Amino acid sequence: MPTLDEYLAANRERFENNLCELLRIPSVSAEPPHRGDMANAAQWVADRLRRLQFDVELVPTAGNPLIVAQSPHVPGAPTALVYGHYDVQPVEPLDLWTSPPFEPTRRDGNLYARGATDDKGQLLTHVFSVEACLETEGRLPVNLKYLIEGEEEVGSGALWPYLKENAERLACDCVVISDGGQFAPGLPAITYGLRGIVGFELKLTGPNRDVHSGSFGGSVTNPANALSQMLAALVDRRGKVRVPGFYRDVKPLSKKERAQLAALPFDEAHYFQQIGVVGTTGEAGYTTLERRWARPTFDICGLTSGYQGVGAKTIIPSTASAKITFRLVPNQDPKKIGESLRAMLESICPPGIRMELMDQHGSPGVVISLKSPYVAAAARAIEHAFGRPPVYTREGGSIPVVLGFRDSLGADVLLMGWGQDDDNAHSPNEKFSLADFHRGIRASARLWQELSRVKRRAKAKG
Ligand code: BES
Ligand code: MN
Ligand code: MN
After folding, report:
1. Quick check: 34 pLDDT over 90?
2. Which of 21, 310, 405, 436 is the most buried (most CB within 10 A)?
3. CA-based nearest residue to 295, from 260, 252, 258
């Protein structure tokens, strides 16, 4: 049998080609016409896992199917649950892509495609590592369960109830997730905190059709004006969110953690320069890393009203709408914030406007304890593959179900992202560095060995 490194070296190109197969499936969960693509992507992942001698089930849900799989049982060894998602974000604006989003293309050491880093490429590192392990050792040293979903990018609606009803089946010692980033190129990280999120669509309706802004202007309430005023009321110039009670439950950062974050080798100038930003605003009194990872925010993610074509058109639009999100930190409650927001918007909505506020998704923020032998094992595996130990970071993004893993399954969660800040997740020209892809596979293979040596605590069964 080849050694692990020989096997990985010999199969680099095939791993990349297999990833490209999955990347060609346009599994955009937000858009109903992609329903069939969601099923195809789920099927692709299930087939891959079946080839590894896993017991695989495609679980239908009210939304997109889940893949639940389990490796052959190794008595006495720890059990890790690998979580990831096969759904991706919408690709618009299409004209800004250098190569089409679902035609994966290699350029300067990167693979470009929607889903390359978020999360198909990262997810598959944990699939190819198992293959490599089986082909070089003949067996896995740990028990692995896989739980792969197709609705992460729209809030994981179907996964929550499944998790609650199948806690026994999903029982594990730790959860392994690669769906985030390293701290910087060549500087891997273990992430111990994610922000939560609560999202809405706000729609305002005024006159029953677009009307001439000269004939009607001044006499009827303009929904676009009203929307601007209402949205502007939600946050002040110092970055404070104005929804009543918004900060009531926020757990403040400790002095110790602020010092730890400040000690990270953060290249702030480069961070802003890579996205072409000159001058910034943000919540007063906090550093950039604190603002990104550990403070709650309000953002408009989409804004629509009136004439969008070329040239001028003088109308009062009939409707105006916005997609908005609040990023949350422990211990803010998405439900309470939604209720307070609704009351506030109703109170400031001007006469002549009908308001609808539609819930999109909500999940709380999470901070995970690093005092775990599984975290130590993950750090060793990362150091082995990346040539240096990880730094410990939080992230500003959200993975809705992480809190469920910790609280419903009582498992230690390992967030070990292989991506980079400049991977263009959710943006045009999403990419994944091929070097990071292969390092990720190697780290994952090492992780199975490291986890197998962890002495299990009494609480877990199996
Ligand atoms: N992989 C991201 C979450 C993430 C982003 C983790 C950056 C670490 C760093 C995930 O796919 C994601 O984008 N989640 C959504 C969730 C939402 C739609 C409910 C997010 O954060 O916007
Ligand atoms: Mn993701
Ligand atoms: Mn995402």
Report:
1. yes
2. 436
3. 252
* Residue 151: both structure tokens together: 């609705």
Nearest ligand 1 atom, CA 419:
9
User: Using an 8 Å Cβ cutoff, are 198 and 328 in contact?
Assistant: yes
Question: Per-residue DSSP letters for 11-36?
Answer: THHHHHHHHHHHHTS--BTT-GGGHH
As residues whose CB is below 5 A from the ion ligand 2, the structure lists 118-119, 179
The answer to whether the CB of 189 is under 6 A from ligand 1 is: no
> For residue 425, how far is its CA from the centre of ligand 3 (angstroms)?
7
What is the distance between the alpha carbons of residues 48 and 137, in angstroms, rounded to a whole number?
19
Gap from CA of 153 to ligand 1 centroid (Å): 7
CB 88 within 8 A of CB 28: yes
Q: Is the pLDDT confidence value at 98 over 60?
A: yes
Q: Which of 419, 365, 422, 431 is nearest to 396 (CA)?
A: 365
Asked if 142 and 451 count as a contact pair (C-beta separation under 8 A), the reply is yes
Task: Establish whether residue 152 lines the binding site of ligand 1, counting it when its CB lies within 6 angstroms of any ligand atom.
Answer: yes
DSSP H helices, 69-220, are 121-137, 159-165
Instruction: Note whether 266 and 182 are within 8 A (CB).
Output: no
Distance CA(170)–CA(160), nearest Å, equals 13
Give residue 299 CA to ligand 3 midpoint distance, Å: 16
| Side-chain-side CA neighbours of residue 281 (13 Å) | 9
> What distance in Å separates the CA atoms of residue 147 and residue 158, rounded to the nearest whole number?
12
Three-state DSSP class for residue 348: helix
Half-sphere exposure of 61 (CA within 13 A, CB side): 26
282 vs 280: CA distance, rounded Å: 7
What gap in Å lies between CA 401 and CA 79, rounded to an integer?
19
The tokens for 106 are 């290699």
Identity (one letter) of the amino acid at 63? Answer: G
Q: Are 247 and 239 in contact (CB under 8 A)?
A: no
* Closest CA relative to residue 446, chosen from 125, 180, 16: 125
Q: For 101-110, what is the mean pLDDT?
A: 98
97 pLDDT more than 60: yes
3-state secondary structure at position 72: coil
Does the pTM exceed 0.85? yes
How many C-beta atoms surround the C-beta of residue 372 within 10 A? 18
What's the first-to-final CA gap in the chain, in angstroms? 30
Task: Report d(CA 349, CA 204) in Å as an integer.
Answer: 9
Average pLDDT, integer, range 309-322: 98
